[in-house]
């Protein structure tokens, strides 16, 4: 059985490769910041005035923001894990440093979405919210790199903001700007409290009328109830017209349920690292299988180490004296 030491340690060749990449990463970050400054300068003057100045006060404020980020150094993997551990214990300064040290990553991702028409400043602010969320959810005990983990949260936040642009395309610019502000403030309030904020709370934070907040929120989401009637007599609802062609037979549902329980018991016989490898490699839970390289990056170990852990884990699962159907799967 693998020991904790050989699971945590990286081969010397990989450690050397990581050190060799540091100067390249720093150079890449500088290029991203310079490109971000160029993107801001190249924006249409009217749009730059209506968005940048409202979002950060002035163009100078955004330039100052980029200069501040340039002065932040990159963290080593060990420093990341230490800050994440302290943040998990309630150290707010550690959490803040972990976030600030990865602000360059937000800019790098946000710049890929500038063609959507959303101002770069707005994309960066959305990405920062995703980065903050990643800092809250990150589990340092898994040993993976925080930047790799945060990339998913940042990209999700930025792409969601970019996707909403298609719904705002026909709105006047000043309305679209206020709508983005309301949605951003609502997300911040939700993150702070863990609850969906009331329109009155959003209105107070934005310093606008509550009725305007309600109108703007109605633009963001206009759901249609499945209980809505589809005829004048209200005899049938929208749900009655939908065919569920994917619904499995009751026997199949029961079989899958039993197999899932058996799989859970089988996985409990593995070490935490082996269980993580199998879960990621075969997409258990999210349906997305990863390559050896992807798993290695997420867990902070080499691709060869992932392969070794997978072989050991599969042998344990095959020897598990449980469901015959489960043994056939592995």
TrEMBL record:
Coiled coil: none
GO terms under biological process: DNA-templated transcription initiation
SUPFAM superfamilies found in the cross-reference section: Sigma2 domain of RNA polymerase sigma factors, Sigma3 and sigma4 domains of RNA polymerase sigma factors
A Pfam family recorded for this sequence: Sigma70_r4
Region (Disordered): 31-52
Stretches assigned to the RNA polymerase sigma-70 domain: 122-135, 291-317
Gene3D superfamilies: RNA Polymerase Primary Sigma Factor (1.10.601.10), Winged helix-like DNA-binding domain superfamily/Winged helix DNA-binding domain (1.10.10.10)
Family, as annotated: Belongs to the sigma-70 factor family.
Descriptive protein name: RNA polymerase sigma factor
Lineage per the UniProt record: Bacteria, Bacillati, Chloroflexota, Ktedonobacteria, Thermogemmatisporales
């Amino acid at each position: 059985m693998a020991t904790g030491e050989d699971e945590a340690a990286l081969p010397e060749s990989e450690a050397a490769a990581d050190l060799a990449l540091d100067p390249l990463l720093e150079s890449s970050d500088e290029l991203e910041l310079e490109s971000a400054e160029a993107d801001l300068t190249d924006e249409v003057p009217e749009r730059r005035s209506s968005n940048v100045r409202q979002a950060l006060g002035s163009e100078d404020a955004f330039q100052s923001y980029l200069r501040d980020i340039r002065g932040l150094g990159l963290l080593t993997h060990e420093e990341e894990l230490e800050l994440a551990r302290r943040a998990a214990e309630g150290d707010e300064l550690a959490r803040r440093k972990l976030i600030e040290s990865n602000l360059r990553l937000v800019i790098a991702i946000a710049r890929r979405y500038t063609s959507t028409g959303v101002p770069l400043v707005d994309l960066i602010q959305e990405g920062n919210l995703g980065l903050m969320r990643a800092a809250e959810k990150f589990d340092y005990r898994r040993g993976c790199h925080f930047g790799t983990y945060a990339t998913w949260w940042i990209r999700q936040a930025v792409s969601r903001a970019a996707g909403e642009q298609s719904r705002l395309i026909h709105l006047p610019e000043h309305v679209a700007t206020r709508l983005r502000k309301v949605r951003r403030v609502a997300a911040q309030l939700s993150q702070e409290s863990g609850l969906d904020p009331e329109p009155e709370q959003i209105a107070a934070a934005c310093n606008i009328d509550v009725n305007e907040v309600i109108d703007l929120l109605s633009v963001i989401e206009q759901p249609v109830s499945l209980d809505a009637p589809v005829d004048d007599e209200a005899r049938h609802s929208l749900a009655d017209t939908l065919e569920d062609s994917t619904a499995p037979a009751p026997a199949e549902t029961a079989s899958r349920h039993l197999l899932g329980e058996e799989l859970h018991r089988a996985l409990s016989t593995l070490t935490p690292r082996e269980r993580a490898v199998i879960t990621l490699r075969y997409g258990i839970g999210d349906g997305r299988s990863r390559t050896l390289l992807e798993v290695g990056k997420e867990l902070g170990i080499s691709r060869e180490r992932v392969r070794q852990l997978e072989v050991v884990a599969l042998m344990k699962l095959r020897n598990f004296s449980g469901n015959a159907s489960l043994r056939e799967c592995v």
